[in-house]
């Protein structure tokens, strides 16, 4: 299949050497390996750079270039890989609720997620929610707590609208809401354009990164480095002192080189 994706290069990038089959074991293995190998990062919107959704460009950036990306890039790449393996995958869109107070109006569809059919039943797959990375596919089973290595998640449904929540130290926190309406590439183009260019979108003014390593989540939020244990329990939090510290943090905990001088990245925060 000539879709611009090198399957062998992707598998090497995530460190997967086992068998591949359209079953739950493969889906879970690839999902976990992906989030542990490819960090979430939205540095290009912060730098005012365009974010392409063309698969060859995404492959060059996340696989060959050993960068990270945000939800549209991550989940478009993962969708293409799963389809290559033989899965039936439907791209969905979510309305992010992570920073919204209870009862706030719903915002636009600015998040991409996947519905994946496996012999064991449909599963939600999402390797690109950077506020709380999901490290395993979740069953489309509502009202049931689902524990993964790094978190506990709860899927709810009311009148055809699904809500995904994550357990946090303060209790359940809404991640996003979505329906089962399949999205077109043009739908993602609009969401990606808003998310990567609008001054109302958080990624154009904030440095946001997350990576799962071992039993810890590493997060950069502007000039703060946060390390979390399971279910969002903060283990360490400290300031990123300067550009040199930011560059070293990216290399050490996120496995990537800064895509621009670290001084430039810091200068763009809040600009």
From TrEMBL:
It comes from the Bacteria. PANTHER family: ARYLAMINE N-ACETYLTRANSFERASE 4-RELATED, N-HYDROXYARYLAMINE O-ACETYLTRANSFERASE. This is Arylamine N-acetyltransferase. Belongs to the arylamine N-acetyltransferase family. Pfam families: Acetyltransf_2.
